[in-house]
Specification:
Shape: globular
Distance between the termini: 53 Å
Radius of gyration: 27 Å
Largest sheet: 5 strands, antiparallel
Length: about 550
């Protein structure tokens, strides 16, 4: 009852703080709130009451700490003994729990007050969000003692605060930080989450601090080392003014254009910011953010399939063969991959039961075995023309090949002793996502790709895990700068669904796949998702429903 009362008080505080009057007449209008606007909604915290018992002190502290982003946690610290108030760091971590659950407050044998609730995820002090496993539970203890006035106060607690999913969405904003690919030809998003009220300043600080550790090997920044922010970012009438330190002046004109582009794309991810003005010690920098860089380079491509054992493209509901080579059907091709060339003439596919990787050039009408193994992973093209594969029963490496037979063997100790189910290289070629079977459980890893000046892959970084709430994953594809579509389950025995999995954000369900789905591919967004059924039919996801695209095919692929 006590935890439900807390939730009710929180909701009432939010409503009372946000509404001065309620309309009782007039037309109904649809309103789309800005993702970063502060608005009038806020939480109002109450200080501790005279004679409150320990459980009431803890419950009051939880409510007050949720309102702390508005009052700098002044009221929340009133629930703490002076020493604890000075040491407690509320933004060291934010732990998020589901709206469908209530926090449980109890007194344990030691006399401490324990708060437990199922965990959805946590946010680090640098704004990095990590999902929790389905069975994860937040457990945090509070020790209390009476102060000089005989009032109970908290003397010991963990750093951080607890938010329900709804409050987290209201008070924090999704903020991609944009860094540069190795050759500076594309932007690469590093997803963070910041308090809504301080979003712009936090985002600039995050950009200047550099990418997440796992991503650092695949990207760089145009900001000179030591660049700092001179003052808080001012946002007025949609214009964000960012005053930087003089280190920026050491950058070349080209570098200044790139760093201006990084700043503009990062800050204009907010709909409240339309343009960015960069100054140095108050004087305009003069660099224009006009570098034409995409964060998700992907053109308009036709769907490729395997039809009658040959690569084909779908046109008008029919599969049109791209090559006439009688030897290919005999090779028993499967698991098609397509290159990024505009005419879609470069293909790779597994052959002979997955033992061979075939290179197919439809323009030159030739095909040959590029690599052989025991049982190879479904191939993936990158934007530099390399094809990625490796052994399904992996010993700690992936193989990267060019059409001339050049081979790069990239070591990845984190793959040692696992079975690899699927891989997919990101559109700009800086990241790879790998689905592994570890002891019968599916794990989704994302790692950075280090390249030399010619775009040759030279190393894989240590990975991070995403999609922790999924119990099983069979297929995946990229559908955005930080977003994957995944075919999987959230629990053993549950139905298979399609999920949107953000690298650095919470996952969400998209839809149930078409009945009998065994493969998927995708291009630019959710509307490009295409699945293949066990009956050889391809279906596209369109406006919340499935439509037939092609029949009698054995593979589906967009470039990648």
């Amino acid at each position: 009852m006590r935890s439900r009362a807390i939730a009710l008080l929180t909701a009432c505080a939010l409503v009372l703080a946000g509404c001065s009057s309620l309309p009782r007449a007039g037309e109904v209008h649809e309103v789309n709130p800005s993702p970063t606007a502060e608005g009038d909604i806020g939480l109002t915290a109450q200080p501790p009451g005279e004679g409150d018992d320990p459980e009431k002190i803890v419950s009051g502290f939880l409510v007050a700490s949720r309102a702390g982003l508005d009052d700098d946690f002044v009221v929340a610290r009133q629930y703490l003994m002076d020493s604890a108030a000075s040491e407690w760091n509320p933004l060291a971590q934010v732990r998020v729990y589901s709206d469908s659950q209530n926090t449980q407050i109890s007194t344990i044998d030691s006399g401490a007050i324990r708060v437990t609730v199922g965990s959805l995820g946590s946010l680090s002090s640098s704004g990095v969000y990590t999902e929790s496993a389905n069975d994860a539970v937040i457990t945090t203890d509070f020790s209390l003692a009476k102060n000089a006035d005989g009032q109970w106060r908290i003397v010991s607690l963990e750093d951080g605060i607890l938010f329900s999913e709804h409050l987290f969405d209201q008070l924090y904003v999704k903020s991609p930080l944009y860094f540069l690919s190795t050759d500076s030809s594309a932007l690469v998003a590093d997803l963070r989450w910041y308090p809504r009220k301080t979003f712009a300043t936090n985002a600039v600080d995050g950009l200047l601090a550099g990418p997440s550790q796992w991503l650092a090997g695949g990207v760089h920044t145009a900001f000179p080392s030591g660049t700092s922010r001179a003052m808080a970012v001012d946002v007025t009438n949609g214009v964000a003014t960012v005053d930087l330190s003089t280190e920026v002046l050491a950058a070349s004109d080209a570098e200044q254009t790139l760093l201006a582009t990084q700043l503009q794309r990062t800050l204009t991810a907010s709909t409240d910011i339309q343009s960015v003005q960069i100054t140095v010690a108050g004087a305009p920098l003069g660099a224009d953010a006009n570098a034409d860089l995409s964060a998700y380079p992907f053109g308009s491509f036709s769907l490729s399939v395997l039809a009658d054992g040959l690569p084909a493209q779908v046109s008008g509901g029919s599969a049109v063969p791209m090559i006439d080579n009688p030897a290919l059907p005999e090779a028993d091709l499967s698991d098609l991959a397509v290159g990024y060339d505009a005419d879609q003439t470069q293909y790779a596919a597994l052959a002979n039961g997955g033992k061979d990787l075939m290179w197919i050039d439809t323009r030159g009408a030739f095909a040959y075995s590029l690599y052989s193994g025991e049982l190879l992973i479904r191939p993936s093209f990158d934007a530099f023309g390399w094809v990625w594969t490796g052994e399904t029963a992996n010993s700690g490496s992936l193989v990267v090949l060019e059409n001339d037979g050049a081979v790069a063997q990239l070591q990845a100790g984190w793959l040692g002793g696992v079975n690899v189910r699927d891989i997919a290289v990101s559109r700009e070629g800086t990241r790879i996502v790998v689905v592994c079977d570890v002891g019968g459980e599916a794990t989704v890893y994302v790692a950075s790709i280090t390249r030399d000046g010619q775009g040759v892959p030279t190393a894989l970084g240590d990975p991070v895990t995403v999609g922790q709430r999924l119990a099983d994953v069979t297929e995946l594809a990229w559908i955005g700068p930080v977003t994957l579509v995944v075919l999987g389950k959230t629990a053993a025995g549950s139905e298979t669904s399609l999920y949107s999995v953000e690298i650095g954000g919470p996952m969400s369900r998209i839809a149930a796949p078409y009945t009998g789905t065994i493969r998927l591919t995708a291009g630019r967004d959710e509307s490009s998702i295409t699945v293949l059924t066990d009956k050889g039919n391809a279906y596209g996801y369109d406006g919340g429903s499935w439509r037939s695209i092609a029949t009698e095919v054995s593979a589906v692929a967009y470039p990648g």
